[in-house]
Predict the structure.
Amino acid sequence: MNLSKIFKNAFLVFVFGLILAACATKKSVKTTTESSTTTKAAETVEQQKADPIEKLDALMQGDVYVGSDTVGELASGVPDRVFFATNETILTTASRETLRKQAAWLRQNSDVTVVVEGHADERGTREYNLALGERRANAAKDYLMTYGVSSDRIKVISYGKERPVDSGSNPLSWSKNRRSVTVKAN
Amino acid sequence: MKKKLFFIFIIYAILKPNISFSLVEIDITRGNLDPMPISVSPFFSDKITDNKIKDNLNIENLGLEISKIIENNLEKTGLFDAIEKEAFLQKPDIAHLKPRFEDWALIKSQVLITGKVTSKNINDKDYINIEFKLWDVLGAKMVDGFSLTTTPRSWRRVGHKISDKVYERLTGESGYFDTRIIYVAEEGPKTQRVKKLALMDQDGFNTKYITLGNELVLTPRFNPANDKEITYMSYFRDMPRVYVVNLQTGEQKVVGDFRGMTFAPRFSPDGKKLIMSLAKDGNSEIWVRDLETNIQEKLTDHPSIDTSPSYSPDGKFITFNSDRSGYQQIYVMRSDGSKVKRISFGKGIYGTPVWSPRGDLIAFTKLHKGKFFIGVMRTDGSGERLLTENFYQEAPSWSPNGRIIIFYRETKTDDEGQGFSAKLWSIDLTGYNERLVKTETDASDPSWSSLLGN
């Protein structure tokens, strides 16, 4: 039993060594091909790649989107959407400011009715996301109501993860998709 | 050493009761077995039958096609290895009458399937009669067989019924080939997916689209007690609601007509009730509706998200997921809503619990460290076993015999947001034999029917 174990281990070590050797040879091949391409081209590619990462900090606070890409207008100067943290339905300071603008505009335009659409990112199960979207839309609706918009002017619909605005599979894309959007219904 | 003993014990326990009536047996509690070599001889037919079938179905050699259905079904289990037909030494007609077992043993076949197709005319209508025999090559005897008559266009189902019979006879488990899968067919860019309900045979044939794609449809599920009925969620007229559809008549009714959104529907095992979630004012609760009396009742009462309910096969319990602890976890309660108990305690978040038709396991989706897993646990939460890991996958649904789980998987898009796809996959309960389930389009939200009735 023990002897076979020793043999087994020795064999494993041997195999592992082979793998390492294989890796090492592969690497050396790779570097030679890489060095054959011009260094200038490689540098520009790297710069391009670095840019979005730098931007990421400016576009997200925590994991809440704070940029303006994808943001439309409910009316002139009134943004149509607010963004949420992963799995969260809490309205951020920026979200509350947006919703107060929406409420003010809706108070001035009392014939307008709206639909608040709740959305989630793709990193959750479909059914849970439907519920989460509904919760997010209602968080926005409740805030609009607090600022004087009557509930019968606000319909709520959840799309869960079904209607992303950004098709990317990365944290920035997901942050844009975790949103509630106020849309004119009439 | 301990492990080895345990292993032997399992094999013994599974094999023992069957040893008395058959020599060929397969232990399907393991997935990494050497597959059993099997020969499926083309079913033979006479000239008159061939001509009739060509008129009716425009198929040249129906017997060969039926044998291919059986081969394909059995091979996909991972338990059988179909021997190439070129290697067969005996002709189909003689093999069906009386196989020369030495010839089949010579090509290392342990099991032989033979058959015969005959056209029939009853009351001026064309029918086909299909006879099949299952032979134990080493034991040199016939071990099973049947004959059935059907309309020509049901010929594929006969192939599935034969596959079920063979599977049952050789594994001791009930089959799952004469079944259908309902799913959501998807097309178009990720931000504007068009979704339709689609129905296909378990092996991907006979796809039918049930909705046109005008409205978003999600989460279709079979009635386990009636394979002609499904429930699903539709955004028809921008009102997300649960519907029940009769697949034969096309009759459709709203069952979740509440203020708010109804979603996540599933039938009770007897098909008489429907459980679903109702989201209203930012809170999702689980409701049950009696489909005969139309009386509905709220089962959960908690300010958290309660969704994805699924009945135990005896109808006494419901498993669901809730984020009442802060994150999505799996719970079990009595079907009247009492005695709610959390069962998932592992690392990560858990969703979409689905009770196995055998009653002993719950399949689920788990998200942990940015990866999605499909797994199973016992109904008390113990014995968690993760079967497959990927970037995104969810929505497990059980084969009617509780051996296989079908689910859908989505791919990660590249830096330009391109390369998105959604596909159906299946995996054995053992964690082996993971397979892409072919569909005409992209697909999600699969639900497996029970064995089909007539």
